[in-house]
Specification:
The chain is α/β, with parallel strands linked by helices. Helices cover about 35% and strands about 20% of the residues.
Length: about 550
Amino acid sequence: MLPIGEVAAKLGIPSDLLEPHGRYKAKIPAMNSAWDDKPDGKLILVTAITPTKAGEGKTTTSVGIHDGLSILGKKSIVTLREPSLGPVFGMKGGAAGGGYAQVVPMDDINLHFTGDFHAIGAAHNLLSAMLDNHIHWRTEPQIDSRKTTWKRVVDMNDRALREVTVALGGTGNGFPRQDGFDITVASEVMAIFCLSEDFADCKRRLGNIIVGQTRDSPPKWVTAKDIHSDGAMTALLRDAMQPNLVQTLENNPAVIHGGPFANIAHGCNSVIATKLSLKLADYVVTEAGFGADLGAQKFLDIKCRKAGLTPDACVVVATVRALKMHGGRDFKELTEEDTSAVRGGMINLEKHLENMAKYNLPCIVAINKFPTDTQAEVDTVMEECEKLGVKCVLSDHWANGGQGSVEIAQAVTDLIDQNDSSNFKLLYPDDMSLVEKTRTIAKEIYAAEDIVMSDQAVKKFKQIEKMGFGHYPICIAKTQYSFSSDPTALGAPSGHMLPIREVRLAAGAEFVVAVCGEIMTMPGLPRTPSANHMGVDDNGNIFGLF
């Protein structure tokens, strides 16, 4: 690794603007007038087919494209999300890429990094503490302890904390009530952190968080601002809001900042980091969580809508292995050549490409190469993409770094040169009703026949619109493993009904969450967690991270 000052110099960042965190990490002061007059670069979105156990590799591909662009002499940055400790110690593992397409220092990035997630957790839990203190002292506005809506968080998979009882042990400890924990990346504070433009915007959004209701009839909503916690929460987030600069294995600059869950929130790195990167480089490679349906749709309809961003190109990542699973092949049989299964699985890729076309977003397909892929299988994907009129490139970045992704990098720049980003459009307008926004996403993105809503969901939609939040975008919360609400339905199921079980208002994040089926906001650890195999060797090096 190069000293972080040398990495920053590649972007023209003077050393006196950096806030180093050791030799290989630094904070960049994004809210600085030094960047104001710089023109914006081109924004490249990396998304993927529907996730499977076979793996797709968006982060690895994003890093590979960035390294490939650098080899081509382009001034580029890869801008990514920060990993959550829960999945790192659980089953998913880290989120720093893989093979020769990684961001480093990998162990720091996957563990405490620069403390951003701890700051977000502290800000969230400060509000939790101030909420209970407000109830304890019966401060105005008096909150009905039975109608609080704000939990606590911890950045760890801990199923025992999903439902808890707090304030036991006597009147001095407050009013006993049922509470619970979410994982930090599911916090509305995380979503606010990633959608805020600056400190003032962050404070405003934090103040709008709804924490409960009063005892009045009819009850009134109580916000974080009402209990005077928004200022202190912003203070806790001050340093965290500055994006983090690291590097790839090929010493190219990488910005990593924020990380909301993609199945229950919008699943993108921070607006601040993306906008800063666009000022610092000619090409910015970023990613959205999970498949293009649950990830890219939110990136486009929530993040781009709120931040005024216009992506210039989209890379849809697929693997031969995952396509075979969508084509009906069992996970244990993926090493066996099966062009028929590959062809069958193309229906999933085709649907994602069709979805991106609805935004007038030019796309290219990247085949993330695995050692078990046969030439016949790769040729099948290429042939099917050619029939769809979409360019497809085999990328070998995992094994060969930037040299393995020069072709895909060149193809992306060619795609940008050939297309006009001004044609970009959103899926629905702000003034459409919340129900119709949800129905539009269900039909257009998930190929559903319609939505079916619980009585509670119908009532909540009406209530939110009556409160004046009907112009907010919809954030679909559902399984990432299928276009339907059934995680076992692979391929491209259509004609199903998308169930809207529950509706939640994220008044600070400024979106409305439509919950489809059972969604877990506090994961549990698997039978054999990844943490079982981690440790520190005699030289002080961490092992077992992946």
